[in-house]
Design brief:
Elements: H1 8-29, H2 36-55, H3 61-80, H4 85-111, E1 116-119, E2 122-125, H5 129-156, E3 158-165, E4 168-176, E5 191-195, E6 208-214, E7 217-224, E8 228-231, E9 234-235, E10 239-243, E11 254-256
Length: 272
Amino acid sequence: MGVRVIYADVFFLINFIVDFMCLYITRALLSAHAALWRTVTAAAFGGVYAVAWIVLPYIPPYALIPAHIAAAWLMAFIMLGRCGFGRICAACGVFVLSSAFAGGILGAAFSMSGGGYVLSGGVYAEISPAFLIAVAAASVAACYVYGVFARRRITSLSAKAVIEMDGKEYKASLFVDTGCHVTDPLTGELAVIVSARVFGAETPRTTRIIPFSTAAGTRVLYGFKPKSLKINGNRAEAVVAVSGKDEYYRGCDGLVPPSLTAGKRKEEAEIC
């Protein structure tokens, strides 16, 4: 029987490429804010984990799934950072599904280049450098195309807001939500919902109590009337309602009704 040789650098590169592609797709599907360096670091961790896995002695079958899920969760955590346990678990689930889908396709393609074999619970196949380059090029192209599509979609549904309060300016990306009907109960003014992370360590002093109803129920947000509010460069009259730091709105920092995104007068903006 011949000796099977696995080159660690090639094996790392293959896993890095596939993990990066799956993480990128996961980030796009969840509309999650994650820096590129975090995604690269998470993919590199996946590559190191794969290399370390094959050099370990035989792993019993009952340990395979828990170990792989734990590694996937850590990769999601590295990519997203501290954004809430539930959101990381959701990202882990999407990443596992995308990895299974990509693994099935690539496994079938790899098997065409030679017979596969099993090592430490994984199935491996010999591939040529040309095939590796082709896989890398296809992965990068797929990520680029999906990224352009996702970016255009998000841009068409979001608005840029500049909030001025207490001598400071805060910038936020707000999702344009046709179902956003939040108003200040005292003045009747429309409200935009902005995550507290936009304001950093110190949130401006809140002077308004604003009820906020969703499919999950009704809760109360605290807000304030900014000195100045500009949405897409146009001055807008609205109250800012502050939500939790870990809350994301389809990848954006908050919600804004469509009527505030076109620079309309206050009396016209009453219809959301």
